């Protein structure tokens, strides 16, 4: 792919879909296109494929995802993937499923996921003790970030062409050194999949929340400030993401409120709240990532050719 050729259009529902193997029970196949590539497939997308496999293996549409935790053992290239699943238990109102995703060329497990599915039911225990960030800009006032500086390994990312991403606060963004001020490892941003995956009732497919849940890196950048001799470029490589589903939403835009309280010894830990445009909490996620310095020259070619 050259700079002049367009990135292939991505359709999250279609591209994260799985189909059963004709010979092996509990095995599913998928094919993620180059549309979802960062340097490899975006971690939130491989998590979504594994969760989709777990959902299909369970085969109970009345149960929705309650939580899912993915461990990323190896980066996954774009292309054909295999998902092997095990239904640990399928109870009356809850079920537990595991899924092991690998690239078709891999022998081991690249992503291991455990998930719980459940039926909603009303009880007297009903509260949300998480507060919407009042300093978040409304989505209609948010602006796209400036382009990354020349030579940045983040100049051309296929995944970014399948999404819209807006600055949820007037602070620092990648490549915007003039507006950076020292502060905590915290960011506010609005995320939207251009091709929105919807359920028959019109709500956003909850599996799509795997994508905005994978967002630790920008908060680390916000804490450190613009790249320089004492702050060389680095990659934030997901090791584990745990996603707790809270409420359905019809909102296309999802506010990511990300905070990274600890980054030490080559690892960072963060928490992300996902809110809809009506200020309702739709999910909570935690993420552990490996912080790895990167040589920008390694990514000098367009990302689609890497």
What do you see in this structure?
With 306 residues, the protein is mostly beta strands. The chain has a single domain (12-120, 136-305), classed as Acyl-CoA thioesterase, double hotdog domain (Porin), CATH 2.40.160.210. 11% of the residues lie in helices and 34% in strands.
Keywords:
mainly beta, 306 residues, Porin, 12-stranded antiparallel beta sheet, single chain, 4 helices
State the name of the first-level CATH class.
Mainly Beta
CATH superfamily: Acyl-CoA thioesterase, double hotdog domain
What portion of residues belong to β-strands? Answer: 25-35%
In the CATH hierarchy, the architecture is Beta Barrel
Radius of gyration: 19 Å
Shape: globular
- Unreliable segments of 5+ consecutive residues: 299-306
Sketch the major β-sheet: 12 strands, antiparallel
Mean pLDDT across residues: 89
| Secondary structure category | mainly beta
Ends distance: 10 Å
Strand segment count: 12
The tally of structural domains comes to 1
CATH topology: Porin
Give the strand line-up of the largest sheet.
1-2-4-5-6-3-9-12-11-10-8-7
Helix content class? 10-25%
Number of helices in the DSSP assignment: 4
The ordered H/E elements are HEEHEEEEEEHHEEEE
């Amino acid at each position: 792919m050259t700079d002049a050729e367009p990135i292939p259009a991505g359709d999250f529902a279609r591209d994260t879909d799985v189909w059963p193997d004709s010979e092996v029970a509990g095995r599913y196949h998928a094919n993620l296109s180059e549309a979802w590539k960062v340097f490899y497939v975006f971690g939130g997308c491989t998590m979504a494929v594994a969760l989709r496999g777990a959902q299909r293996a369970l085969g109970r549409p009345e149960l929705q995802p309650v939580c899912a935790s993915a461990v990323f053992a190896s980066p996954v290239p774009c292309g054909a993937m295999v998902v092997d699943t095990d239904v640990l238990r399928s109870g009356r109102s809850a079920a537990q499923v595991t899924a092991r995703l690998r690239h078709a060329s891999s022998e081991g497990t690249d992503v291991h996921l455990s998930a719980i599915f459940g039926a909603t039911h009303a009880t007297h225990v009903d509260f949300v003790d998480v507060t919407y960030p009042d300093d978040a800009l409304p989505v209609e006032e948010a602006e796209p970030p400036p382009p990354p500086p020349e030579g940045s390994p983040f100049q051309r990312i296929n995944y970014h062409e399948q999404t819209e991403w807006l600055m949820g606060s007037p602070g620092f963004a990648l490549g915007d050194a003039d507006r950076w001020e020292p502060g905590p490892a915290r960011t506010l941003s609005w995320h939207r999949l251009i091709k929105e995956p919807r359920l028959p009732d019109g709500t956003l497919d909850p599996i799509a929340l795997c994508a905005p849940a994978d967002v630790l890196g920008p908060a680390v950048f916000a804490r450190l400030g613009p790249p320089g001799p004492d702050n060389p470029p680095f990659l934030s490589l997901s090791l584990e993401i745990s996603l707790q589903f809270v409420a359905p939403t019809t909102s296309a835009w999802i506010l990511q409120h990300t905070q990274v309280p600890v980054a030490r010894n080559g690892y960072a830990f963060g928490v992300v709240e996902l809110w809809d445009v009506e200020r309702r909490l739709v999910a909570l996620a935690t993420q552990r990532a490996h912080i790895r310095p990167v040589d920008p020259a390694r990514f000098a070619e367009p990302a689609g050719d890497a």
